[in-house]
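ARCHIVE CARD
Drawer: 12
Card no.: 0347
Subject: one protein chain, sequence and derived structure
Cross-reference: see card 0346
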Amino acid sequence: MPEPVGPGQESVWDYPRPPCLERSTRRVRVELDGTLVADSTRALRVLETSHPPTYYVNPDDVVWDLIEPAAARGTWCEWKGQAIYWTVRVGTVRVEAGAWSYPEPTAGFADVADHVAFYPALFTCHLDDELVIPQPGGFYGGWVTKDLTGPFKGEPGTRGW
């Protein structure tokens, strides 16, 4: 059962399936060990039923000096295509495969090409000035904020959704 929606909130149960891609003008910030890794007001967000949005940062707003290709890891998304992964390093702190992108996404998600998504469980992430809570479950990259209602895919008991 979807949770009630309050003023200024949106329900992840109103998001479509298959998912959609939309532009966001909200400020997306990603930090590792106090160092800014990405800062953008030109991100894209993927909206999918039962999932909090995943934010994809414009490649021009990523600090590429801190990012390198991850060891041979890749995944396939039925909607976006083949993903590649990135390792982020700040000093001695290293997050292996903590970010991903789609160099050649499917036609429906062409705008997400080369944008970078970060797992909020592995970084300090803010949407505007709000500290993001990671989507439950460890596998997903959704950003939970106070303007969303669930329940969210990844919470206990949601494996079969």
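Annotation on reverse: The mean pLDDT is 96. The two ends are 12 Å apart (CA to CA).
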